[in-house]
Specification:
Layout (H helix, E strand, L loop, with lengths): L9 E3 L5 E8 L3 E6 L12 E5 L9 E3 L2 H5 L4 E4 L8 E2 L7 H19 L11 H4 L4 H10 L3 H9 L9 H10 L9 H17 L5 H7 L4 H11 L5 H8 L3 H4 L9 H7 L5
Parallel strand pairs: 1-7, 4-5
Antiparallel strand pairs: 1-5, 2-3, 2-6, 3-4
Length: about 270
């Protein structure tokens, strides 16, 4: 029998009750995809992340002790148990826009030197990009021309995406660009969506999300969450108390995922 929800240390508030199948196993986590159709605006294949406490709470994270995590089966019938594990509130903190300036200043100061060299931070350092492997050089050459449209749209949001060909082209260019569980371009667009929330205290226009969604269910889930202003606990802690000690953990998400998301803030 799988562990009940009540033994988890935290349960994300955007986890959908459903049947799930195991997608992949990692050192500190297991990723599942739902077998049930999505409802409303939920993706049809919604992920669930069973993770160790060191990863932290998140909107789709179910935190379990290492032994309980290792005991999870390949198929889960994930239904709320009573009493459930404590729910993690993934909404941006109140007055997040007012908290943003010192966090942005730290990102601008520290990210260029701390980010992995093959992250999208290289888009903002053309000289560094030249020393990357050919794949990354071609990636940066393909994406760099689209940065002005994203920068302009973040500073002055467009409501009618259909009439904004440069922005639509930029969203399509970044969508799915890269490799890994979540391609770098998708992580960057998630960062753009969060930046919009923090700049304007409002979500980006719905058309932005529609143009960013692709065929990767993990990326689609993260893009949907970012568009809704939903964040992981480490990002919340960084916003509330920006410092190197709260910033560095953000760079530990995937090989470059954390840095790729944060790179979007260099547009501002």
């Amino acid at each position: 029998m799988p562990p009940s929800l009540s033994i988890g240390q935290s349960l994300g508030d955007r986890i959908r009750p459903a049947r799930y199948r195991l997608l992949s196993i990692h050192a500190r986590s297991r990723i599942y995809l739902s077998l049930d159709e999505g409802a409303g605006d939920a993706p049809s294949s919604c992920p669930l992340f069973a993770v160790q406490p060191a990863i932290g709470a998140g909107p789709l994270n179910w935190i379990l002790a290492p032994a309980a995590l290792a005991a999870l089966p390949d198929l889960l019938d994930f239904r709320p148990a009573l009493p459930p594990a404590p729910l993690y509130d993934s909404a941006l903190p109140p007055h997040a826009a007012a908290l943003f300036p010192p966090a942005l200043a730290l990102i601008r100061r520290e990210l260029p030197s701390l980010a992995p060299p093959d992250s999208l931070v290289s888009l903002f350092s053309p000289s560094a990009s030249a020393s990357l492997p050919p794949f990354q050089c071609h990636r940066d050459a393909f994406l760099a021309p689209h940065l002005p449209a994203l920068r302009d749209s973040l500073r002055t949001p467009r409501l009618a995406l259909s009439a904004d060909a440069p922005l639509r082209a930029a969203l399509h260019a970044f969508r799915g660009c890269g490799s890994g569980s979540t391609p770098s371009g998708d992580d960057f667009l998630s960062g753009c969506f969060l930046a919009h929330h923090l700049l304007h205290a409002a979500p980006p226009p719905a058309g932005w999300l529609a143009a960013a969604l692709g065929h990767n269910p993990i990326s689609n889930a993260f893009l949907t969450l970012a568009h809704a202003g939903r964040i992981h606990q480490p990002f919340r802690q960084f916003l509330l108390a920006p410092s190197l000690s709260t910033f560095r953990p953000l760079l530990h998400f995937g090989h470059t995922s954390g840095a790729d998301l944060l790179a979007a803030f260099l547009l501002l």
